[in-house]
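Notes, Module 5: Reading structure tokens.

Key idea: the token line is not a picture. It is a compressed description, and you learn to read it the same way you learned to read a sequence, by spotting repeated patterns. We will look at two proteins. The first is printed below with its tokens.
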Amino acid sequence: MNFLYNFFIWIIQPGIWFASLFSRKTKLYYEGHKHLTKKIEETFANENSDVIWFHCSSVGEFEQARPLIEWYKGNRPDFKILLTFFSPSGYELRKNYNLADWVFYLPNDTRSNARRVVAAVKPKKLIFTKYDLWNNYIVQARKSGCKLYLVSAIFRREQPYFKWWGGFFRKMLKQFSAIFVQDALSLKNLESIGITQNVTVAGDTRFDRVEKVASLSKDFPVIEAFAKGSFTIVAGSSWLPDDEIIADVMKNFSKVNLIVAPHEIHKGRLEQVQDVYRQYGTIRYSEIEEDALLETVGETAPSFAHGKRVLIIDCIGILSGLYRYADFAYIGGGFGAGIHNTLEAAVYGVPLAFGPKYKKFQEAIDLIDCGGASSVSNASELYQILDNCIKDNELHSLKGRSCRSYVENHLGATHKIVSVIEGL
């Protein structure tokens, strides 16, 4: 299996080059890896600081690592922080993250790259987030004396670790000084393959992250003015199937307004969103003039919103703070690869809905179980949920409180993890 793993890592490189000719995302990956190992060696050539290395697959895993990075930056200033990403989505979004001393793609997991990078960085601790594990880096880091940790992990029976042929993958897990899992089921699954030492049920650090974001979220007077006096839906990270369902439902509610933040905001996607909601009147966030900020008095919508029921967010970085203005939140992605971040909305005590592809996300399952969220497969189902929330204030409040309580009951993962790693 080790031979096959290394052969696959080697043989896939020409395929990445070929795919980069047709895919913008793959091209970013390919270009970002040119001379990458050499660049890292040059960067660390004269570096003598203690380094703690965080590796994340993409944006979601970064959000799980972020509370730990913030803790180390605030409480262990003697450490410098290296942050690496596998995905172009994560790297491009966070390549200028100010709490990391260095941000790179992770060089491809060849034996040579792993030896050279670990020898250059000389990390004291290497923290992998959730599931993006790379064998050669794990082996080389362990050989160097580096402590290895896996945080916010989830283990399911369908993963390779639990297959009869999964010994290679189980061996990777046994290299870690400590593994922090999100739930008791993950602990039970690890126990079934003999991994019982140094495993802690710590929860998910994203709860701590969304709580902090909510406590620090700034005001958006334009958004507040738009939402005033109406039942407002915030649709976060929407895709076309999500928009089509919401647009179909809105025809039944003349006093419902929508703030929609598409997952992608390139020109074509924004035009697509405008077209879907055209019948309700749309306006882009970037089109609102500054004087609209002053029009927040009274219960009447400001002049910029007259005849407009749909506000399109055409910038990035503000979605998590917009849910505070929602009466109801719709989380996109459930008709594609999977839903996006539900916790960003749940922290504000907002009832949620999302599409049918949510079962890989434990928090979504839990939010449904506690009554705060609902999964919908079509416009009819979304209509029924919205109609019930609009007509029944008590039901609406109960759903919102259930979401908020769920978040509150799952805070503290960051403290549990650093307590073990740092022996606090």
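Here is the second protein, with the sequence above and the tokens below, as before.
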Amino acid sequence: MHRFLLVEDDRNIRELIFHYFTRKEKGAFEVDLAADGQTGLEKAYENHYDMLLLDVMLPELDGFEICR
């Protein structure tokens, strides 16, 4: 099973993407969520992910800073 981290501050977008990727017909990805850049960075350091899906404009740290 593939695992990725979704860092998105907009609750509606976060929930939409989460539900899309966790549908059974999609292969049931495991998705962890973060609502701000700082939390996303901490989760990225603490866990192994196959992919990070980052919003560019986030509170705390933006998506570009997380990539650096």
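Summary for the second protein:
- The chain has a mean pLDDT of 92.
- The first strand starts at residue 3 and ends at 7.
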